[in-house]
Amino acid sequence: MTVRVLLVDDEELLRVAFGMILRAEPDMEPVGEAGDGETALRLARELRPDVVLMDVRMPGTDGIEATRRLLQEAPDTRVLVLTTFDLDEYAFDALRAGASGFLLKNTRPEQLLAAIRDVAAGDAAVSPRVTRRLLETFARQLPPAVPGAVEGDVRLRGLSGREHEILVQVARGLTNAEIAAATGLAEPTVKKHFGRVLAKLGLRDRVQAVIFGYEAGLVRPS
Question: Could you read off the pLDDT of 13-48 as tens digits, one per residue?
Fold first, then answer.
């Protein structure tokens, strides 16, 4: 499968560099470039890319708003956001807007390619622990816990007890292997249960599950 990628960054030099890296790969195709969020949205509608590599800090419509609007229009598109700092409030907001991961702008070419392939395959391009570190850092932006909110959340009522347990552990940043060790389940069984969690909650990937867990009040920042 060829992964079709839209490059979005207000720095032309960076777009050119990323385009050169992608064109050297037989399974990658850069289908377009944009220097701002509005142009990115227009090109995404026209080109229907599999993955959008999105700068978060741009003039006008920034990468956060562009990500939110793009995923409302094309929920199957995956967004990877580009940032300068790993603990970046913009990256945090982009993940909450639906991005499947984030990369530092100085990431190595092999890491860039691996991340694009991962999100195109439906995985996340940032570990749950990094996501949790972002959540802990920017916890003030999370809505305050409301007594009884977790028990009354209709999104959770369709989960079995085991699925609920695994969702909480994922939200705490545990890997499938760690959850398997803690529960006594086989790792493929944990993966199967978690797949059902994603399907029932309408979540894209593990990163979104971590964010959901915090927003639903299943876990709270320490």
Answer: 999 999 999 999 999 999 999 999 999 999 999 999
**Contact assessment for residue 135 and residue 92, using Cβ atoms and an 8 Å cutoff:** yes
Distances (CA, A) of 52 to 29, 74, 79, 134, 157: 12, 11, 5, 22, 33
Q: Which residues of 54-72 are buried (b: 16+ CB within 10 A; e: fewer)?
A: bbbebeeebbbbbbbbbbe
User: Any alpha helices (H) in the chain, and if so which ranges?
Assistant: 12-23, 37-47, 63-73, 89-97, 109-120, 128-137, 149-152, 161-171, 176-183, 187-201, 206-215
Q: What is the pLDDT of residues 200-213, one digit of tens each?
A: 998 888 888 888 88
Residue 207 identity (one-letter amino acid): V
